[in-house]
Each structure stands twice: as structure tokens, then as C-alpha cells.
Design a protein that fits this description.
Strand content: 15-25%
Bound molecules: flavin-adenine dinucleotide
Strand order of the largest sheet: 4-5-10-6-7
Number of strands: 18
Distance between the termini: 29 Å
Largest sheet: 5 strands, antiparallel
């Protein structure tokens, strides 16, 4: 049961703020997918809830005349992913929130709730960090804008005061025009799973002035003779790297970003450089979900993959759709990934193996637990 004292449906953001200010026992509820779970577990029992769910101005996505994208915090994940402005200008954000939970959660859970709950595992968090999003908080004394990079103060904690309502999420044109990006989530299964690690890399590619001189020979061709790396003819004009669950709060890797900026996009060295240097800017921990060592492997490998996909997308050759990987795909990580992980985590061998075609195998015996035909839900 839900131990709630009072419930108020606010008519406007100002109305919600007034109720929160007048009632020290009140807190905001939006989609309720975090609040109600906590209440049922007894956390915050006896509170008063002020709902912002029915406030029209907090829903939807818009673009102002100067190109700033304004995201309503009460917009649910499904609507974010399907929004035409998001699809055109921030597709990687739509993909990131499309990895949340399952269809029901994505239809109720909101992007504002995902930020305000302060969780380092929030699936919008890594991408929002790289977007330099600005959060508009309305309180009893007016509004203030807080960069998302300064929003988190610790696990589950933010600078938002109890009586403040997040009324808008702003993304400036300079932070998305000309950029491409990719969010990768690692989870042990492909739905209804909180991220073990999330990584977003965004790049702004610029034409390489030296490319003509090289007469079509890319750095990767020069270096490896194979020419398999994407991005020939471009330099990394700017780079943003964000992580979820790589530290107690969502994180940016600004020093690594600076090191990469200006390098040729098809230079093979960028992949080792990103993998090596992001480790200096994160502080992953052991948890029941994964060990610190395993997270370190993920942090390196996901940075490489997200960077490659962001460059591919910047040259119009990327793969659309959310990037999401689970243990079975670690095989592809070779020495640096799957084998090391298995050796260090023998207990995990018994985990079910989710194959790409939907089949589920017993990780120990290889026997089929569920075959593709009987597959159900949002796997
Ligand atoms: C089964 C299940 C699976 C889940 N899977 C995932 C997942 O894969 N990835 C993931 O990231 N999350 C997941 N979640 C968590 C949750 O769905 C998200 O964090 C969601 O974004 C919360 O949004 P909400 O609108 O439901 O927030 P609520 O529960 O309404 O609120 C969450 C917090 O934010 C505050 N708040 C909400 N909106 C505002 C606002 N506009 N202004 C001020 N404060 C506000 C509330 O007071 C509360 O503290 C899952 C939850 C469940 C129950």
C-alpha cells in the first residue's frame, strides 16, 4: 500500500511551487515510477504529494527562434524518443531513453524525474552531461538556470531545493548543431534493467584541411594499410564524453575530450587514447551488479565503441537504433573483455545468455531456456 497523507493535482508550475512552499511535508510527483516505488517500500511514508503530471506547459519538446531546444520535464520517455525535433536534432537522446525499463515505464517515467531523482544510473544522464543541458528550476523567489554538469551533489542528491520544480531542460544550438553521438548501455539483460554502465560520446566533425594533400589516403590506411577506421577527411573539432555509473554521480571526462580535440577522426590512436585517459576521470565502485574491475573494462570498451559509432554517424554511415549490450556480446571484446571478465567472475557463467535473436541459454550448460518463438515482452 502507498502511505500518502494528501495528493494535490497542480494546475501550473507556479501553483505547484506555491503548494510545495506552503507544505513542508510535500514533494513533487511526476510519472511516479520512482516516487511510488519508494513509498511502497516505506521511504517518505506519510508525505503529501504535489502532482505536476497534468500541467500542459511541462509536456512536449519545442525549439525557440534562436534554435534552443526546450524539453518539458514531464515529457515521458516514449514521447521524447518519438518527438520530431528529438529525432532530427538529438537522436542519441531519444535512443538513450528508449533503453529505460520496458514500454510501460517509458510511457509513465519522465525525463525530468530521471534527472531530479539524482541517480547516477539514469539513462538520460550521460547524454545530458555531454549536451551541456541547462535546467530551469522555478522556486518561490523566481527561476534559476543550473548547468546539468553542476546539478548533482552526490548519490541521489542534487542542488534542487524541495520546493523547486524543474520547468524546462534547455539545449543550446551550439551544443547540437553539427554534432553526432552515440549512447551505449551495458546491462545483463536487454530490458527492465538498470544500467551497469552507460556511456555517451558526441563528436563535432570538421573537414580536415590536410586531407586533400593526402590525396585520399586516410591516417588509418597509412597506419594499418587496411583503411577500416571511419572518419577519413575529418578532424575531431570537438568531443564530449559522459558516463553513467562510472562515479557516484553522472560524469564528464573533460581532460580526455581536450586531448582528442583536433586529432584526425580516422587516426587509430584516438581509440587507445580515449580508453586510457577516461580511466583517470572516473571512479567506479563495486556493487552487487558488477565489480569495479569489470566496470573499468566496460568504461574503456564502451568509450571506444561509442566514439567509433559517433564518428560513423557524423559521416552518415552509422547504425541507427539504441546501442545496448549484454554479457553474450562481451565475447567480441576478446582479451580485454569477455575472457578477463569470465576469469574474474566465474559465478557469472551461470547467468542466462541472451542471444541477439531472442533465444535464452543457460550460461553454464548452453541449454536453451527459452527459444525465439516463445519470446515475449520487451527483450
Ligand atoms: C520497473 C522499473 C524499471 C526502471 N528502469 C529504469 C531504467 O532502465 N533506466 C532508468 O534510468 N530508470 C529506470 N527506472 C526509474 C524511473 O522510471 C526513472 O527514473 C524515471 O525517469 C522517473 O521519472 P518519473 O516521472 O516517474 O519520476 P517520479 O517518480 O515522479 O519522481 C522522481 C523524483 O524526481 C522528482 N521530480 C520529478 N519531476 C520533477 C520536476 N519536474 N521537478 C522537480 N522534481 C521532480 C520527484 O520529486 C522525485 O524525487 C525504472 C523504474 C521502474 C519502476
Amino acid at each position: 500500500m502507498y502511505d500518502i497523507e494528501k495528493f494535490y493535482e497542480a494546475k501550473s508550475a507556479g501553483d505547484a511551487v506555491a503548494h510545495l512552499a506552503a507544505d513542508p511535508n510535500a514533494m513533487v510527483i511526476s510519472g511516479g515510477t520512482d516516487v511510488l516505488v519508494k513509498l511502497r517500500a516505506g521511504k517518505g511514508a506519510g508525505c503529501d504529494l504535489v502532482s505536476i503530471h497534468e500541467i500542459p506547459e511541462l509536456h512536449g519538446v519545442d525549439r525557440t527562434t534562436d534554435g534552443t531546444i526546450v524539453i518539458g520535464p514531464a515529457t515521458c520517455f516514449t514521447d521524447i524518443t518519438n518527438d520530431p525535433i528529438i529525432r532530427e536534432s538529438l537522436p542519441y537522446l531519444g535512443e538513450a531513453v528508449d533503453t529505460v525499463g520496458g514500454p510501460q515505464i517509458r510511457s509513465m517515467g519522465t525525463i525530468g524525474g530521471n534527472l531530479c531523482n539524482g541517480a547516477t544510473s539514469a539513462d538520460s544522464a550521460a547524454t545530458m552531461q555531454t549536451l551541456n543541458a541547462r535546467l530551469v528550476l522555478q522556486g518561490p523567489d523566481g527561476s534559476r538556470e543550473v548547468p546539468v554538469t553542476e546539478f548533482y551533489t552526490g548519490p541521489g542528491r542534487t542542488v534542487r531545493k524541495r520546493e523547486e520544480v524543474l520547468i524546462a531542460i534547455l539545449v543550446k544550438p551550439e551544443d547540437y548543431i553539427g554534432w553526432s553521438g552515440c549512447y551505449i548501455k551495458y546491462g545483463k539483460r536487454k530490458s527492465m534493467e538498470i544500467a551497469t554502465l552507460g556511456c555517451c560520446v558526441r563528436v563535432k566533425l570538421e573537414a580536415d584541411p590536410g586531407a586533400e594533400k593526402a590525396a585520399g589516403v586516410s591516417s588509418s590506411e597509412e597506419a594499418s594499410g587496411s583503411g577500416f577506421l571511419p572518419g577519413a577527411g575529418y578532424v575531431l573539432g570537438d568531443v564530449c564524453i559522459g558516463y553513467a555509473v562510472a562515479a557516484p554521480t553522472p560524469t564528464r571526462c573533460r581532460n580526455t575530450e581536450k586531448l582528442l580535440t583536433g586529432m584526425k577522426a580516422d587516426d587509430p590512436k584516438i581509440y587507445d587514447l580515449i580508453a586510457e585517459h577516461v580511466l583517470e576521470e572516473v571512479s567506479p565502485r563495486d556493487s552487487w551488479r558488477a565489480s569495479r574491475d569489470f566496470r573499468i573494462q566496460l568504461i574503456k570498451e564502451m568509450a571506444r565503441r561509442a566514439l567509433e559509432q559517433a564518428i560513423l554517424r557524423g559521416t552518415g554511415k552509422g547504425t541507427p537504433g539504441a546501442s545496448y549490450f549484454s554479457p553474450v556480446e562481451l565475447d567480441e571484446m576478446g582479451e580485454a573483455g569477455g575472457q578477463v571478465w569470465e576469469a574474474e567472475h566465474p559465478e557469472e557463467k551461470e547467468m542466462p545468455v541472451y542471444k541477439k535473436d531472442g533465444e535464452v541459454l543457460n550460461g553454464q550448460t548452453g541449454q536453451v531456456i527459452r527459444d525465439t518463438d516463445k519470446k515475449g515482452g520487451d527483450q
